Amino acid sequence: MSLDFTAIDFETANSSNASACAVGLVRVRSGRVVARTGWLIRPAVGHDRFLEVNVGIHGIRPQDVVRAPSWSDQLGHLMAFAGDDVLVAHNAGFDMAVLRSSCEAAGDAVPAYRYLCSVKVSRKTYDIPSHRLPLSAAAAGHRGFAHHDATEDAEACAAIIIDSARRAGAGAIEELADAHSLILGTLGDAGVRRTPVAA
What digits encode the pLDDT tens for the residues 176-194? Predict the structure, then answer.
């Protein structure tokens, strides 16, 4: 087994989980980043209002996504990049809810993915005052990234998992979860649920 996974991060236009306006993806193989990508997304109608508070966080405005692919148009690309990997995200409950809700709003089947939350891994690994992404990433030795750029955030998340696995002596994402008594969640048509890590 080897430390293979895909880190993912979404930015949203507003408080709706179905308002994905950007995604970042980082592929890790044998504990090393081997590919990174990201793109803008045109949110589904009814979920496409951009709130100033969200724009203030990530800087993406309505005019930036006018020619961007819709959720349905980009979903195949997202799934092709992630393949059969376990997904990891910082506060994975949010990102998995965005993936599920955006699919539901667009009428797409929710893809079946297992996932792990790097916030939970960080809490088990680092003794730091906050486990927000910049501080957790800094503890992993990953500093100076553009926070709230989806691809940069995904790479920071990947750095946390890679460093945590090294510290735990874990050679696979399942081993890392098991080392910290965490469980992998499961995303699919039944929604987001938590399942025990297989022995």
Answer: 999 999 999 999 765 555 5
